[in-house]
Amino acid sequence: MTTYLSVWKLRFLTGLQYRTAALAGLATQLFFGFIFIMIYVAFYSQSTVNPSISLQQLAAYVWLQQIFLTFVMLWFRDNELFQLITSGNIAYELCRPCGIYSFWYAKLLAQRLSSAALRCVPILIVAVLIPAPYRLTLPPSPLALLLFIVTLLLGLLLIVSISMMIYISVFWTMSPTGSTLMIAVTGEFFSGMVIPVPLMPVWMQYITYALPFRWTSDFPFRVYSGQIPETEALWGILIQLLWLALMLTVGKWWLNKALRQVVVQGG
C-alpha cells in the first residue's frame, strides 16, 4: 500500500506543474459552460411542457460537468501507458515488485485529481458569482452536499476503473485509437455529458440506468441539485459500490489474462 500511495503522490505533484494547460482548459470549460446553459435557457423559454428537471437544476448540472470534467470524462488518457503496451516496454512494468493494475490505477487517479485541483476552484467561483439563471446554486441541504461528495468520489473511482478497460484492451488491438473512441464516445453519451439523462426519452433512460456510465457523473450531479432525493441517493451509493467492485474484479482478471499472453520481442 505504501508503494501505491508514493506513486499517487508523485504523479499528483507532477500533474500540478502543468499550469499553462490548466489555464487553457479553464477558459475552454467556462466558455462551453455558458454556451450550453444559453442553449437550455432558449429551449426552456419556448417549451410548452414541464421538463422533469428545472432550469436551475440543469444549470447546476452543466456547471458541475465543467468543474469536475477531468473526474468524469473518458477522453482523459495517459499516452505513456499506451506506449508501454504498444512498444513492448511493458517488460519493465513486469519487473516491478507490485501489482500492475493497482500501480496504473494509482497513477490514473492522481492525474485526474491533480488536473481537477488546478481548474475546479476558479470555475466554481465564476459559476457561483454570475447572475441567474446561469448561476450555480447551492445544494438544497447539508446532507445533499455530503451525499454529493460521497457519490462524486465513488464516481471518480468508477471512471478510473472503466478507463483501465481501455488500456487493457490495447493488449489485443495494439491501437489506442479504436478502444478510446468506442468506449469514450459510448460512455460520454450514456453518462449524460451530451444530453442530460433527465432530458432523454424514457426508453433511452432505461438503457442508461442499466449501464455503469451514468453513475460516474449524472448521478452525483443530480444528487447535488436535489433532483434525486436523499433516500434514493443512498440506494444509488450502494449501486455505485456494486459497479465499482464488478469493474475492479473484471479489470484485474482481464489484465492478468492479457499479461499471460503478452509477447515481448527480443526479450
From TrEMBL:
The UniProt record lists the keyword Transmembrane: yes
Short name of one Pfam family: ABC2_membrane_6
Transmembrane segments: 21-43, 58-76, 116-134, 146-168, 189-213, 233-255
Key words, A-Z: Membrane, Transmembrane, Transmembrane helix
PANTHER family (UniProt xref): INTEGRAL MEMBRANE PROTEIN, SLR1174 PROTEIN-RELATED
Official protein name in the record: ABC transporter permease
Source species: Paenibacillus thalictri
